[in-house]
Amino acid sequence: MKKLLLKNLFMVSAFICFAGTSLAAPKNFIIILADDQGYEDLGCFGSSRIKTPHIDRMAAEGMKLTSFYTASSVCSPSRAALMTGRLPKRVGVPRVLFPHSKDGLPESEITVAELLKTKGYATGLVGKWHLGHRKQFLPTNQGFDSYFGIPYSNNMSTSPDLSYAKDLKFAPGWSRERLQGDLAAIKADSKSRKDLAPLMRGTEVIEYPVDQSLLTRRYAEEAVRFINENKDRPFFLYLAHAMPHTPILVSDAFKGSSESIYCDSIQEIDWSVGEIFKALRECGLEEDTFVLFSSDNGPASAARTKRGRTAGPLRGNKFETFEGGHRVPTVAWAPGSVQADAASDAITSGLDILPTIAHWAGIPLPDDRIYDGYNLTGLLTGRTDRSPRNEMMYYAANSGTPDGIRVGDWKYLNNSPRTWKNGKRVKVPPTEQLFNLKKDIGESENLIQAHPEKVQELKKQMKAFDAAIK
Length: 470
Prior knowledge:
Layout: H1 2-18, E1 28-34, H2 53-61, E2 63-65, E3 68-69, H3 75-84, H4 88-91, H5 112-117, E4 122-127, E5 146-149, E6 163-170, H6 176-188, E7 199-201, E8 204-208, H7 215-229, E9 235-240, H8 261-282, E10 289-295, H9 323-326, E11 330-333, E12 342-344, E13 348-349, H10 353-361, H11 377-381, E14 391-395, E15 402-407, E16 410-415, E17 418-421, E18 424-427, E19 431-436, H12 452-467
Parallel strand pairs: 1-9, 1-10, 2-12, 3-13, 4-5, 4-9, 6-8
Antiparallel strand pairs: 2-11, 5-7, 7-8, 10-11, 14-15, 15-16, 16-19, 17-18
């Protein structure tokens, strides 16, 4: 059924282009995603501790999106929304997936890669997938021509469900016999191994465990190779970094380059962004490529800010529905298309990327499903300073339960924030809170008593929206 729908989309989009409408000619699209990066952790977003000259230049030549939200404050749901333009609850990925998980992004869902393939795009994923590691869920079965990376978070280990190459390369001290022992231990206890990520190409593990200190560098090299190989045809590249998710590692060239290993890792990611732009310029693709830099969610925890991460001036972090968990540093770049040296505080989201790319590529969205994203072309091009999005839903991490809603400047929360005590994450009782984000970006003043009518209005809207999701 999905193949038939995509075939029909190809016929419709071909007709649209042939008919000579005002839709833009096909472009190249690149999404670069960091993992667990704090809102303030870029020079162009206010950091004085981290040097990010390449992303800063990208911001100077493009647009900063300062109210850009992920659909979840944890990785698998956030990435599902980015790939499909649909809320995690709607696509069946409301929780983080693990090496022992049996599910993933359903094959019936249509990813941005699958849409672009209807127009003849080359599609490649370099980096972290985290939307299912069983064969039917892997990137090569979700619209990507090629895949090189780790199937889930870098603090996880291997899985008996993965396929292993005959010429599998082992790290020093490892062997096939030791791998078999690992797999047996994992079958007995799914949490028995950590920080031993498998590196895959296509559908097979080619290295185990991968040297994570080289991941950022190797991802950059693979991404540049993909650009060079597809410079004569339209392409979509999704570069999803493993860092700065823990365990944080960097190559020798960046080790000790800043005040902490966390900051080192961001600076190496910035270097990799520079390599991408260097390749685009050398291939003459600078005027025909859209690039988005963002993060899958906020920083890991306030308790670890001593390692350099911060969501300042926002409150909260990963796992929470305060702004620090959902609002991430984002930059959009496309000379001649995205307004240069601009910044927008209008509400935008990772959900909006698929509809925006589809519009630029001249591809109509399938009409057999509900999309939660909006086309941001008007905002990005500067034709308007208003976003088509005026609201954002906040779903609890690892849950299909709504924690809150933002409409305009007002945000209502009825959540159970996770805090840290004696080094462990603990829950506190649910608390109703109301904030005016325009006046109080740090969510420090609870206005619940001062505006009871606004509370009831937002609660009603939140519940009605959630109830409509099937």
